[in-house]
Structure of Germin-like protein:
Amino acid sequence: MRQIQKREMLSQNTLLLLLAIFPLSFSITLASDPDPVQDFCIPNPKFGSIRTIHGMHTILPCKNSSETNTEDFVFSGAKAAGNFSNTGLAVISASPNNFPGLNTLGMSFARADIKVGGINPPHFHPRATELVHVVKGKVYSGFVDSNNKVFSTILEEGEVMVFPRGLVHFLMNIGDKPATLFGSFNSQNPGLQKIPSTLFGSGIDEELLEKAFGLSSKQIGALRKKFDPKKTS
Amino acid sequence: MRQIQKREMLSQNTLLLLLAIFPLSFSITLASDPDPVQDFCIPNPKFGSIRTIHGMHTILPCKNSSETNTEDFVFSGAKAAGNFSNTGLAVISASPNNFPGLNTLGMSFARADIKVGGINPPHFHPRATELVHVVKGKVYSGFVDSNNKVFSTILEEGEVMVFPRGLVHFLMNIGDKPATLFGSFNSQNPGLQKIPSTLFGSGIDEELLEKAFGLSSKQIGALRKKFDPKKTS
Amino acid sequence: MRQIQKREMLSQNTLLLLLAIFPLSFSITLASDPDPVQDFCIPNPKFGSIRTIHGMHTILPCKNSSETNTEDFVFSGAKAAGNFSNTGLAVISASPNNFPGLNTLGMSFARADIKVGGINPPHFHPRATELVHVVKGKVYSGFVDSNNKVFSTILEEGEVMVFPRGLVHFLMNIGDKPATLFGSFNSQNPGLQKIPSTLFGSGIDEELLEKAFGLSSKQIGALRKKFDPKKTS
Amino acid sequence: MRQIQKREMLSQNTLLLLLAIFPLSFSITLASDPDPVQDFCIPNPKFGSIRTIHGMHTILPCKNSSETNTEDFVFSGAKAAGNFSNTGLAVISASPNNFPGLNTLGMSFARADIKVGGINPPHFHPRATELVHVVKGKVYSGFVDSNNKVFSTILEEGEVMVFPRGLVHFLMNIGDKPATLFGSFNSQNPGLQKIPSTLFGSGIDEELLEKAFGLSSKQIGALRKKFDPKKTS
Amino acid sequence: MRQIQKREMLSQNTLLLLLAIFPLSFSITLASDPDPVQDFCIPNPKFGSIRTIHGMHTILPCKNSSETNTEDFVFSGAKAAGNFSNTGLAVISASPNNFPGLNTLGMSFARADIKVGGINPPHFHPRATELVHVVKGKVYSGFVDSNNKVFSTILEEGEVMVFPRGLVHFLMNIGDKPATLFGSFNSQNPGLQKIPSTLFGSGIDEELLEKAFGLSSKQIGALRKKFDPKKTS
Amino acid sequence: MRQIQKREMLSQNTLLLLLAIFPLSFSITLASDPDPVQDFCIPNPKFGSIRTIHGMHTILPCKNSSETNTEDFVFSGAKAAGNFSNTGLAVISASPNNFPGLNTLGMSFARADIKVGGINPPHFHPRATELVHVVKGKVYSGFVDSNNKVFSTILEEGEVMVFPRGLVHFLMNIGDKPATLFGSFNSQNPGLQKIPSTLFGSGIDEELLEKAFGLSSKQIGALRKKFDPKKTS
């Protein structure tokens, strides 16, 4: 223990030297959303870089408190709507990748804007409960439980709905103006499976899909054409 | 604290008396799969009864160690296949409801038998990772991750596959004899959402489904007829 | 196990009878914010009532899925500001007591409105990280870490700040119109200690407070007069 | 939700009435040592009594903050040594049963006194790490890891040793005066398996024990006579 | 945050270069079996190598989803029995070391084969509950609880028994053919302490063992000769 | 998987070589106090050094069992009192930084000595419950709950008090000799916020503090002078 602390004195500088020569880039993927063991942990770019790997969140050794700035704890990227998809949905997600202060603290959030008549298709988050707050607009909103019972309603401005962890849920703007919602999650990486593309855009065996939905090969083929990026020409 | 222990002497008998007159039935739904704080907890029928509420697991005050029997810790109901569904699947699930020893210990399991050509349709368990062990047969097996990448393969007798928590997975018997599999879960109540009936058998708004899958009202109607129990005549 | 299920048939009705005669009221305080072991758990009023005990959240046996309604998962009480305190702050808190769907799902939230020049005094939540979203207005906002470093900034409409679990934080409306904020928490009961009243309104020994702050008996007496409800005449 | 709160008004008194007539005694065994969701939870004797069931800790609905006293959070029973066993060991354990304030807070402790030459035989706690602090005396102390490596040393007054969760550990007073130790645990119910009596005092099949230790039937019989209470005459 | 992402562009290649020159080998030991924060985490050999350190499981930065293969999620090494010990036991353990897909998902498993009359001696897993499924044969099986009560029975083909976390358990093949069992665990590294070698093969002080078991120095010496590898000549 | 193990053979030496040239110093901040997944984890100085970053605990890859020594699990630094502050308090804290064996095991402790009339000012630990054991002396001790109710009492030698996680607590030596206390925590890094310096020594906006306490600018200025290190001349 004592020798550990002595060693540190010299290695601190040597490391900086080393990094100057060989900018080390590695990323450790945190294994959980458990209780933090420090006040916070802002990933330290000195020790590498955060990579956005297909939605996976990676962490790095933390910055010292003295190297950490207030801006690490503030997210300003959700003041306006993001880019709209062809279903009329625009999502901006804040995670430790673009909002470092969230790292290890067990929360994240997203802003969703939905055009009139637009939808957020049936999807679920494998690792989080979601609280959705309607800042503007009027939406049909619901989720399905393990008994295949749907809990759906029309949410108005200022209302809040909870989608229990891991259950399929969905939204549709049924008002006459764009809707804006803020969803908060109790995980720094809730995960996401959008049912249509999970099923038809991933390459699951066609025969299995035919049997699962009772559809013909042609019908499944049409669905796959819609959602499979590799089938899109 | 001291008076608590005195009071107990008399209330023990009074309770039995009370229960003889008014067989109290209540159920507490345990809120988590966390670390146990006792060796085990066999629900005590003296204090009420376990109810099977649409797949929800409920717990009760525990039996004393001296009232607990070895049979509480043994499950004999999975020696043979269960009843087959119309997709050629038979599942026997062991949970604290029918295997009391599992209560509070954070595990459960299921036996699945699949007929030749039969499937276990795309589904997921919101609260558990699954380890599936092929005891007999040959199955196409896979899951989809958050990047819509499918990880699928053919499993043979004696092989084991892991389905990460909350991700959509599926099985199809592609061998020439019935297949038998044992799945174990790291939750006493993994939960289950079968995609086809979650989407089309729950009553989600038709317009939203049309937009989500790009299908016509007639096509969605046909799917709902297949999976919605209320639409089945 | 088998006899448990038989017993249930009759005890269900007997219980209703019993409850008709002796409306049993008890409350179980849930011990944690861990992973849920069921889809959700709406407290069942048939088995007693939820009591608001000085901010403590209590749970009850859950309703069946079939007895649960969509409105259990929706909160409409935060459409407008609550009642303002003398520091110009109005808070509406949503917890399982008034938003049953939150129960066991590990989240809660609050709406805070702050008058021009008003403050939310230094306080902390012992059991949750907070994500605060500025829906309207301009606020000075910050927290202090374990090294006594303050992280403070001015938040504008649409910005989001994170207050790490258990750290002292504070807000002041420095704009020229009322501010509206939504805070979400990763606990169904975050807890709250407002520093001024925790120290001076609780009855901590005066000598200890004098020594802790280096203030005179008279100065401490004045502070206690402000915050101790028993000293208020 | 609203009707729940109305109902409460009357049921509060009715409950007290009911309990006056039928002092209800039930006990809920808490399932975990997770994060608390309230400040604390002092079991409420109004709703029944705590039963000491062979070392199992049971909880009850909590008292209100206003009904809770400081003495619930203080333990005075460890000022002097307990009763000594025939191995020269005296243990006083503090758990929620005799120190209600510990309930739901994830900690407990024990005072151990060991006579000169006395031992605390090899044992382990299935659910907790232990920090042992030598208040008085000199002890041989150690534990064994999963590689069958022993970590043992001589501890003197004022020293502290950690026994990792679930690993076999042991103590022997090798000084010339009685030793006093305080062990704290990170579980409200760490559990205990004393190896000699677990193996030879529980009734494990004799043939299996012979094979496991390579001992004769006569030797195993002698060990069982020492540790099996039923074999003791 | 922004500069982090810029820096990444160049460091990615530099890292590969660096690793080509200095194949960095380090290993991070994961600290828990908590909820995953990503779909899965296949250790990335580019960033070092997994070392099998006396049964300790180590993790590494994860592979990208696109670099991950189905075979990472399948284990084929348990199709046949392993090598038998002198007690007639053959165990094949699957952990993240040889089944990378298990990493961070909170589960592992083992295949055990027991010869006629063979045993799995009393042992326990400090960090997991075990579900044991008898695929073939007939075994005496049991565990001991904290009250020294043994729960033992004869398991037949197709039966399943649960051994609660951290409690001593054991098996003996009492049938007339070899037995095959599959045990699954709710930890990626359950740990293992085999009582005979933990006590007599680790080097615990002889005097303490004599006092603990009431055996003579000669008897303890004989036991140590059997189990202590250093005493074996 | 197989190639991973081959690669290791060579990289082990290369790493040592690399480290001889470039003593790599990095530190990973552990994200939680969850269940360990190995017996223990002694940080390995070969892979870098532990840095004490403003009270933040950092971990490193673990040593092999064979490289680990008993002394890693023993702390001898709390035999005598530490250095006294101007409030008459001396604290020695044991954490993974100076007591490596604690790493990943979810516990830590501190020795506090208080002079006659000295105090431990109101403070709280964001991440742990504390059990305080009075080894010597007589202290006024208490905590405040979320309802601003103070639970305070006089503790004598041998008594133990529990301070629930995250709640403000305090101590004052009211006896006629120095007091010695041992506090144990159920986190390896409980964190600490001392109220006086958190509020007045961190740089919170003066206007906000005036409004929060109802004090004049001059009064707040005087308090800041006492606690703000930057204002101290």
